[in-house]
Amino acid sequence: MSCNICRSPMAEAIFNCLVKERGISKEFCAFSAAVSREEIGNPIYPPAQRKLRREGIPFEKRGAVQLRREDYALYDYLIGMEEYNLRGMLRILGGDPEGKVYRLMDFTSIPRDVDDPWYTGDFDRAFRDIREGCEGLLQHLLEKGAE
User: Cα separation of 85 and 82, whole Å?
Assistant: First the structure.
């Protein structure tokens, strides 16, 4: 399940912090959304908020939103946390004709899913994985931009 209250808002906050630290935030737009509808309107899950605060990562207080088919045209990359998310994303988006859909950890040296801390309770591990994925994604984007 991807409800936009744990991993994806953490990834949004981490990525936005990384680009801000590098002074390039005007060049990027990162926004997270859910595949499922269960948590629409609900805030970031409190343990995820606490982890972000402990790590010094600022985040917007907002309610969960759902991915929309129109989002495919708005973004260059659409990133999921696990294979299950990708299937839901492709269903909502109606496919991926331009090759924009990836798992976050596909941009790391060890492609894998990011385990859902809602179920594991391990927000430290989720944070480490998401940060690694965001750093890999940013590096990929910067290298691609240099081409």
Answer: 5
Specify whether the CB–CB gap between 5 and 37 falls below 8 A: no
Strand partners, 80: 103
Q: How far is CA 33 from CA 64, 75, 126, 139, 147, in A?
A: 7, 12, 17, 23, 30
CA dist 91 and 10 (Å) reads 23
- Does the model's pTM come out above 0.85? yes
User: Which domains can be identified in the chain, with CATH numbers?
Assistant: 7-145 (3.40.50.2300)
Residue 39 has pLDDT above 90, yes or no: no
Strand residues in 18-112 grouped as ranges (E): 78-80, 101-103
Q: Identify the bridge partners of residue 101 per DSSP, sorted by sequence position.
A: 78
